Amino acid sequence: MDDSQHRRSLLLSLHGLSWRLLEAFDGIARGLWAGLWLGLLTRKHLHLVDQLSYEASKSYTASNHNLSGLFGWETEGIDHYFQDRRRLLLLGAGAGREISPLLERGFDVDAFECHEGLRKTGNALRWILGREKLDFGDDLSPGFAHFFTREAIEEELREAGWRLEFFDRRTYPHAVAIAEEELTHISHQ
Q1: How far apart are CA 23 and CA 17, in angstroms?
Q2: Arithmetic mean of pLDDT, 37-43
């Protein structure tokens, strides 16, 4: 290996190392930031932050976003984990972008969203499309729940009779859970 190839190899190694360090620092910094604000803000303040952040972002209420269908990773998850299921519970449904494609695939969908503006947008879009309005629930935790750890999500699901099947923070953070009762019912058939 000549000197220029060695230099290129060293630069590529340093680049990769610096990227991994940046990702680690980013994760630590985000964790510290989230922990700080979760510790300082009351539940009421956290709900207000959630409300304001969704109101400031017009993309979540935009028709083109909410009529865009499932994302690729959502389609893969549905195809992989729910091919033998017909009923789905969609938590954090937003304005309902996922609901119509799931209904079109033959699923019976229950959807919950705690943000009043997103619920109203979702029902307005359904009315425009000539579909039945959805009864969005409103008793879930506000958006700060996105900071729950995998362990906390598993514990909450277990207490409610669900099993965490899949958890991923790499792309858009998401989790897949399956009701233990349904698994028991299926295994006895």
Answers
A1: 10
A2: 89
Enumerate long-range contacts of 67-70, CB under 8 Å, 24 or more apart. 67/97, 67/100, 67/125, 68/97, 69/97, 69/100, 69/101, 70/97, 70/98, 70/101, 70/102
pLDDT at 169: 67
Tell me how far apart the alpha carbons of residues 122 and 134 are, in angstroms, rounded to a whole number: 8
Q: Which residue has the tokens 């079109």?
A: 104
Residues 6+ apart with CB under 8 A from 151: none
Name beta bridge partners: 88. 109
